[in-house]
């Protein structure tokens, strides 16, 4: 049902709100394209989870198998298209406008905030809302000082930290997961590292988020500029070469690249090593206690 609701937002006639669809026109559903958004889907599925509980209480027992899917999907779809869809869409647009405002007026604060929140922005799909801003900046100014540089250094940072995480793993499957996720992140695809590793290691995730905020605050303060719009990867470094031939910007970018690689690796190596030591200590404690009392149950949380 969640997948069905998500797919409905991408259905061509729903996206364009064709005039022939009198049913949709009757409810005055705004013509908004959700093809690059995630927030409306999250809000819609959250609402559906609440509606299902209500219908489950009200529906006759004999007809629950029919009533719950039909009415919860019908109500959720209409409310999402009329309310949560536009709200989620404008949240993304608002974030993009705030990004542009801070980038122009308070670059160090911009780098700190969006560097810190970058991984959360990626995980919610809100990154797509920034694309028009980046393209407009590059078209009008010839460069972008906002989310484009941040996405580059944050991708490198999570790649190096994920590789360090893999080094401290004893399980071959986890090592393979870490290495492949690190390589993907270095090529701009951070989802495997974020969802497969970082979200399961909260201390590591928060540390990398904080480090991303610090590095990007420094680079924004130094007025780092990206002169092209590309997928952020370790091969995207040339986008920081100024067309005028001035080398100062590319030097700043190289400094940022080194900081992201080295600090991400060191911080992750330390944190994952501490976590590994804690697990070993817990295992020894459990084995000792179990030897003394075979029936003992210990919760290490």
UniProtKB/TrEMBL annotation:
It is a multi-pass membrane protein. Residues 1-283 form the PTS EIIC type-1 domain. Pfam families: PTS_EIIC (PF02378). InterPro entries: PTS_EIIC (IPR003352), PTS_EIIC_1 (IPR013013), PTS_Sugar-Specific_Components (IPR050558). It is found in: Cell membrane. The lineage of its organism: Bacteria, Bacillati, Actinomycetota, Actinomycetes, Actinomycetales. The chain crosses the membrane at residues 26-49, 70-96, 108-135, 147-167, 179-197, 204-230, 250-271. Its main location: membrane. It comes from Schaalia naturae. PROSITE patterns: PTS_EIIC_TYPE_1. This is PTS transporter subunit EIIC. Keywords: Cell membrane, Membrane, Phosphotransferase system, Sugar transport, Transmembrane, Transmembrane helix, Transport. Coiled coil: none annotated.
């Amino acid at each position: 049902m969640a997948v069905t609701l998500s797919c409905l937002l991408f259905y061509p006639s729903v996206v364009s709100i064709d005039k022939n669809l009198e049913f949709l026109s009757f409810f005055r559903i705004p013509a908004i394209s959700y093809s690059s958004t995630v927030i409306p889907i999250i809000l819609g599925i959250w609402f559906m989870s609440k509606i299902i509980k209500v219908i489950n209480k009200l529906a006759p027992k004999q007809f629950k198998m029919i009533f719950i899917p039909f009415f919860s999907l019908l109500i959720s779809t209409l409310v999402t298209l009329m309310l949560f869809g536009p709200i989620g869409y404008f949240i993304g647009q608002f974030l993009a406008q705030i990004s542009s405002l801070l980038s122009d007026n308070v670059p160090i604060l911009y780098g700190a905030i969006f560097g810190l929140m970058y991984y959360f922005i990626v995980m919610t799909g809100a990154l797509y809302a920034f694309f028009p801003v980046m393209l407009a900046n590059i078209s009008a100014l010839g460069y972008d000082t906002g989310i484009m540089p941040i996405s580059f250094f944050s991708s490198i940072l999570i790649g190096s930290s994920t590789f360090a995480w893999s080094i401290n793993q004893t399980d071959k499957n986890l090592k393979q997961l870490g290495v492949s996720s690190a390589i993907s992140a270095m090529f701009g695809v951070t989802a495997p590292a974020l969802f497969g590793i970082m979200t399961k290691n909260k201390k590591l995730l928060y540390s990398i988020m904080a480090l991303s905020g610090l590095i990007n605050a420094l680079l924004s303060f130094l007025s780092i500029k990206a002169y092209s719009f590309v997928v952020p990867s370790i091969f995207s470094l040339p986008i920081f070469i100024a067309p005028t031939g001035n080398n100062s910007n590319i030097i700043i970018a190289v400094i940022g690249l080194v900081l992201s690689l080295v600090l991400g690796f060191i911080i992750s190596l330390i944190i994952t090593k501490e976590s590994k030591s804690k697990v070993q200590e817990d295992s020894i404690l459990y084995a000792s206690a179990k030897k003394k009392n075979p029936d003992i149950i210990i919760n290490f949380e």
